[in-house]
Amino acid sequence: VQLQASGGGLVQPGGSLRLSCVVSTSIFGIDVMGWYRQAPGKQRELVARITSNGVTNYDYSVKGRFTISRDYAKNTVYQQMNSLKPEDTAVYYCNTVIGFSNYWGQGTLVTVSS
Q1: What per-residue string of b and e applies to 32-63 under the rule 16 or more CB within 10 Å gives b?
Q2: If we measure between CA atoms, which residue out of 44, 80, 54, 43 comes closest to residue 65?
Q3: Phi/psi of residue 86, each to 5°?
Q4: Residues paired with residue 92 on neighbouring β-strands, in sequence order
Q5: pLDDT beyond 90 at 28
């Protein structure tokens, strides 16, 4: 299983980006998919996740600004990020667990700066 993340870039504070994560297999039935991020000098942290029945969870720091969603037809998970702040700057990784295996995308860099 391979995960290909994209959509990062440089954006000004208050701006928006949409991250995409294309999965090489069907995402139908996958229990949980999520987005994590790792800022320089910090540990990787969970940002958002979505379960197979559509339940979403967000870190308190992004709640109300980020939205995770999925498109079964495209085997893709998205993260819409609005009202971006400098503290959102990080490498963002998509993740899924299938069976007992943990899969990660390669990461996409988001830089929020004026």
Answers
A1: ebbbbbeeeeeeeeebbbbeeeeeeebeeebe
A2: 80
A3: -55, -35
A4: 37, 108
A5: no
Distance (Å, rounded) from C-alpha 114 to C-alpha 106?
26
3-state DSSP helix/strand/coil % of the chain, to nearest 5? 5, 55, 40
The vertex-110 CA angle with 107 and 114, nearest 5°, equals: 165
Does residue 25 carry a pLDDT above 90?
A: no
The predicted structure's pLDDT at residue 2? 93
* Predicted confidence band of residue 110 (pLDDT cuts 50, 70, 90): very high
Straight-line distance from the first to the last Cα atom of the chain, in angstroms, rounded to the nearest whole number: 37
**Separation of alpha carbons 5 and 76, rounded Å:** 9
Q: Which residues contact 93 (CB under 8 A, 6 or more apart)?
A: 5, 35, 36, 37, 38, 44, 104, 105, 106, 107, 108
